[in-house]
């Protein structure tokens, strides 16, 4: 288990993977959220890509493209935009709130055991049946009521967990907003929310293969 | 409605021109107008500039003409619907729209069969010693990166395009350009390092 305390430095290879969309999307959202919560806004990769978009060649659009877009906008115009179910998450980064709102609209929070709720987020690629990968990663938000214990558990693969709001602890450490942990599949742990407030964690789980590179790299952070 | 406020290059060719600072600020104004007043004229101007470029981006990444047209329209609908989430202190319109196009593109066709990162490419490296207060504003970062990109040799800019825009791995770039992997890695690091240096030195 690792509790990451220092600010991760994201190298140019990783930035390219995140900016261009080559990185696994759940992992990308996790790292973006982590960096934003830590105040490490390093959008250089996306600035590069956005600037290259400006210099892109001009493709001819269908003559009715704008009309079709207006029509699509009209069709969806009445959709009400409501706030997040839990105000505690209002402090999270805007792009994460956007993902939360979409998930609340599509499927809502589900029962995850006594005092526990979970919200699975949609990631780019999820909706295309052609690209469904067996054992793909999953990203979700877990809400733990104040004082509630999550049952002891292990994972099939690795679990990345980032505290979004509130505070929880396990046998290794206490996690406040911006702290994150990495568990491998073999380690049992039991997070407990502190008694005064509910805790929220952004959790990515993989199929046991996908984050090998990440885990090794995170390890370097601690040996450095 | 103006036909093309940004004065970009000619029809069908490589535009090569990036936005001037004043146009960049004006596009942010336009998107804010879309968000606050559902301003259709402002939207139409943004559409005129970005939609043809987004379509080129999608075709560059493998979409055929019809598919690229459809996804572009979809991206531009999202621009209208999510305009209120645009924060001009956090991103330029180009960067913001690029993100939408990229995510929509991943929705429709994944470039890679294995979505994981190449294990030989490290995800996260140890933190360089850096005072957090020394960070500069994001929009200042944007300005400096743009300036640095203008100064890069074409060859290095091309490498950044392949890595950051088209999303090729170092291995794929090496194969495409017929260069040794180590050369690709060091040249990308050099090009990116030049921009980092530009951010750190006034």
Please explain how this structure is put together:
The complex is a heterodimer of chains A (224) and B (202). Chain A is α+β, with helices and mostly antiparallel strands and 224 residues long. Chain A has a single domain, classed as Jelly Rolls. In chain A, 31% of the residues lie in helices and 18% in strands. Chain A has helices spanning 12-20, 25-37, 44-54, 65-75, 94-106, 212-223, and strands spanning 2-4, 110-111, 116-120, 138-144, 159-165, 168-169, 174-175, 180-183, 192-193, 199-205. In chain A, the strands form two sheets. In chain A, strands 1-8-5-10-4-3-2 form a seven-stranded antiparallel β-sheet, covered by helices on one side. In chain A, strand 6 (168-169) and strand 7 (174-175) form a beta hairpin. In chain A, helix 1 (12-20) packs across helix 3 (44-54). The longest helix of chain A is centred in the first third of the chain and has 13 residues, at 25-37. The model of chain A is unreliable at 1-7, 127-135, 208-213 and 215-224 (pLDDT under 50). Chain B is mainly α and 202 residues long. Chain B has two domains: 1-111, RNA polymerase sigma factor, region 2, helix turn helix motif (Rna Polymerase Sigma Factor, Chain: A); 115-202, Arc Repressor Mutant, subunit A (Orthogonal Bundle), CATH 1.10.10. Chain B is built from eight helices and no strands. In chain B, helix 3 (65-81) packs across helix 4 (93-108). The longest helix of chain B has 21 residues, at 40-60. Chains A and B meet through helix 1, helix 3, helix 4, helix 5 and helix 6 of A and helix 2, helix 3, helix 4, helix 5 and helix 6 of B.
